[in-house]
């Protein structure tokens, strides 16, 4: 099951990396407004985390995640704006070359 989940995650990331710049190019047509998602992801993140914490509280000690899970989450949180920037960069520059 772990291998199947890993395969779906890798396939999803690969498809997303190909599809999102095309969607950015198609929907936003190279406008500078497309870069607002680089700023707006943080409020969405705060809202989703607050909903998750209020709806799914950790009440049992056995439900606590491993200590390394926090480090992975912090690394993902720190790298996400750069990932968004790269996707928008590829979406915006591909429109200029066409």
Structural summary, described in words:
- With 98 residues, the chain is mostly helical.
- Helices cover 79% and strands 0% of the residues.
- It is built from 3 helices and no strands.
- The longest helix is centred in the C-terminal third of the chain and has 31 residues, at 67-97.
- It starts with a helix and ends with a helix.
- The mean pLDDT is 82.
**How many strands, what sense, and barrel or not for the largest sheet?**
none
Q: Average pLDDT, to the nearest integer?
A: 82
Alpha-carbon distance between the two ends: 43 Å
Give the proportion of residues in helices.
Answer: over 70%
Stretches where pLDDT falls below 50 for ≥5 residues?
none
The 3D shape can be described as extended
Q: Kindly state the number of beta strands.
A: 0
Strand content: under 5%
Quick summary:
The protein is mostly helical. It contains 3 helices and no strands.
Q: Which tags fit this structure?
A:
0% strand, 98 residues, mainly alpha, extended, 3 helices
Write the layout of secondary structure elements.
Elements (H helix, E strand, L loop, with lengths): L1 H27 L8 H19 L11 H31 L1
